[in-house]
């Protein structure tokens, strides 16, 4: 009987629980990685999910840093992604999942509302209970509105940063690869989800 056919990456996809060991110099400043540019956030998030669900730890995946970091490093927050993807000075950060952003937004709104309600309660303690309860309700509602305003402002800033990167050429995704099998797998996943300017390079930082 013939043995069942296996995908060339089937074995490596089952190693997700094992930490990846990266080839590096003694001072751990050199490594190989896959890199590509994505046309939008949705396709990049899909690629990240598949990478994390196959053989890559989350700390092996990174995206371009914030506008503040770009300004600090390059003196401008508008850069060419095609050139930045190979620049060892380009600031990086861990990718955030949409569900984590929602949780963070909810925590911020709830925290501001809670503080506002507590403040209102403390200011009205000498008054009657109905007055205190009404103040708590108003304070909590006002705090929630402030929290939502902050979340909206931060969201707009993030959207602006993403749109700028897309307009300049695409969203950068880096994936550290410890061996040729992981390199091939990372490139396949990036290509599958619409990345361009895909390559493997040696990086020294």
Descriptive account of the structure:
It contains 7 helices and 5 strands. It is of the alpha+beta class and 205 residues long. It has one domain.
A few lines on this structure:
By secondary structure, this protein is α+β, with helices and mostly antiparallel strands. The chain is built from seven helices and five strands; from the N terminus they run H-E-H-E-H-H-E-H-H-E-H-E. Helix content is 53%, strand content 15%.
Q: Specify the number of helices.
A: 7
Content-based structural category: alpha+beta
Using only C-alpha atoms, the radius of gyration works out to 23 Å
Distance between the termini: 52 Å
C-alpha geometry: globular
Count of distinct structural domains: 1
Q: How much strand?
A: 5-15%
Number of strands: 5
| Poorly predicted runs | 14-27, 100-109, 150-156
Q: How would you describe this structure in keywords?
A:
about 200 residues; alpha+beta; five-stranded antiparallel β-sheet; 7 helices; 5 strands; about 15% strand; globular
Write the topology of this structure.
Elements: H1 10-13, E1 30-38, H2 41-54, E2 61-64, H3 67-74, H4 81-84, E3 92-93, H5 98-123, H6 129-168, E4 171-176, H7 180-192, E5 196-204
Antiparallel strand pairs: 1-4, 1-5, 2-3, 2-4
């Amino acid at each position: 009987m013939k043995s069942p056919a296996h995908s060339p990456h089937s074995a490596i996809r089952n190693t997700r629980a094992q930490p990846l060991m990266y080839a590096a110099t003694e001072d751990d400043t050199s490594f190989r990685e896959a890199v590509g540019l994505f046309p939008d956030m949705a396709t990049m998030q899909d690629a990240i999910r598949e990478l994390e669900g196959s053989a890559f730890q989350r700390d092996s995946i990174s995206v371009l840093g914030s506008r503040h970091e770009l300004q600090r490093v390059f003196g401008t927050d508008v850069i060419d992604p095609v050139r930045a993807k190979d620049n060892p000075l380009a600031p990086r950060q861990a990718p955030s999942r949409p569900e984590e952003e929602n949780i963070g937004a909810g925590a911020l709104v709830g925290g501001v509302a809670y503080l506002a309600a507590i403040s209102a309660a403390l200011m009205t303690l000498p008054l009657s209970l109905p007055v205190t309860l009404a103040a708590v309700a108003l304070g909590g509602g006002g705090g929630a509105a402030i929290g939502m305003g902050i979340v909206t402002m931060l969201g707009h800033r993030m959207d602006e940063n993403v749109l700028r990167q897309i307009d300049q050429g695409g969203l950068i995704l880096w994936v550290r690869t410890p061996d040729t099998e992981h390199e091939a797998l990372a490139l396949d996943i990036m290509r599958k989800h619409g990345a361009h300017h895909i390559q493997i390079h040696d990086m020294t930082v």
